[in-house]
Amino acid sequence: MEEEEFFNPSDTIGLDPRALLQPATTTGRTTHTYTASGRARMDHGEEFVDILEERRRSCDLGHALRTFKPHPYQGGPPCSTAELNKAVLESQYLRYVTEEMATETGSSVVEVREQARRLLEEMSHNLQLSSIRLMGYILTK
């Protein structure tokens, strides 16, 4: 018989309780909702799910080193960082902004587009979030 896990308030010290809850979903998996029996419930009857439950059952290091697989935006095909950068650089919006910036600064459009390309390259990353999470894990321990 599976033992039921109860909400432990000491796991959430310093956090706003509303930040720990999200609306319950029916994704086919078991959800632990907290209802009118002294637990969280909105006035209009919407139930909530503890989003930190998974973190309590696993270790921090395992969370830090897990892989990151982003979902494509609204069902679009997945693309690499280079393809995404190319699409942004060829967009009509960036073309308009670079023309406006060139007019305002007195620079050529080519110079402004090159600045935009360098900024975009600096902002993009290779989606190695495990190294960022590992750094966060090390700093908190």
Share of helix, binned? 40-55%
| Mean of pLDDT | 71
Task: Calculate Rg over CA atoms.
Answer: 23 Å
- Structural class by sheet pairing and helices: mainly alpha
In total, the number of strands is 3
Morphology: elongated
Low-confidence stretches: 24-38
Could you state the order of secondary-structure elements as H and E? EEEHHHHHH
Number of domains: 2
In order across it, which strands form the biggest sheet?
Answer: 1-3-2
Largest sheet: 3 strands, antiparallel
* Portion in beta strands: 5-15%
Count every helix, treating DSSP H or I runs of 4 or more residues as helices. Answer: 6
First-to-last CA distance: 35 Å
Describe the protein:
- It is a single chain.
- The protein is elongated, with a radius of gyration of 23 Å.
- It has a 3-stranded antiparallel beta sheet, with no helix packed on it.
- The chain contains 6 helices and 3 strands.
- With 141 residues, the protein is mainly alpha-helical.
- GO terms for molecular function: glycerol-3-phosphate O-acyltransferase activity; glycerone-phosphate O-acyltransferase activity.
- InterPro entries: GPAT/DHAPAT.
- One of its GO terms (cellular component) is peroxisomal membrane.
- One of its GO terms (biological process) is triglyceride biosynthetic process.
